[in-house]
Design brief:
The chain has one domain. Helix content is 71%, strand content 0%.
């Protein structure tokens, strides 16, 4: 079995920590710079049916965290399945995957009038920087878990 109860708990916890840090960073960046990167993080305007509702901020953050949990579980499974035991490789994998996901999600800004313009280089830079930080933190947490508490055989 690839995903144990303990592994699921660890992945969800690490998804919570890194997801809250990403949300906090992007909220701070939006507050300071007025580039709508936090708004983009919480945006669901491109999801049919769900986009017909107006949710309070804490519910939108909850949606973001659900995605963060799912991503952390997937990365946990990748690390276990591929038997990655090097700290550097775990950190690289998590950072790279999150960079790719951030790059792939930025174009959703075109589906909303509330989010930054697709052509906004500063918004893209903050967005990608935040996702790189998210992946790096997730990678550090997983690297500590896999290289200290549990060896991959």
């Amino acid at each position: 079995m690839l995903l144990t109860k303990r592994g699921l708990q660890i992945a969800v916890l690490y998804g919570l920590i890194s997801g809250l840090l990403l949300a906090s960073l992007l909220k701070f960046v939006e507050y300071i710079t007025h580039f709508k990167v936090y708004t983009l993080l919480l945006n669901v305007d491109y999801i049919p049916y769900i986009n017909t509702f107006v949710f309070p901020e804490f519910v939108e953050v909850g949606f973001h965290l659900i995605v963060s949990f799912a991503l952390a579980i997937c990365l946990y499974l990748m690390i276990v399945y591929r038997k990655i035991s090097s700290r550097k490789k775990i950190i690289f994998l998590c950072t790279f995957v999150c960079f790719i996901i951030g790059t792939a999600l930025f174009p959703t800004t075109t589906f909303s009038d509330r989010t930054p313009a697709f052509t906004s280089i500063p918004s893209f830079s903050y967005w990608i920087g935040g996702h790189i930080m998210y992946g790096y933190i997730l990678g550090i947490l997983f690297a500590r878990y896999f290289t200290k508490d549990q060896k991959i055989n």
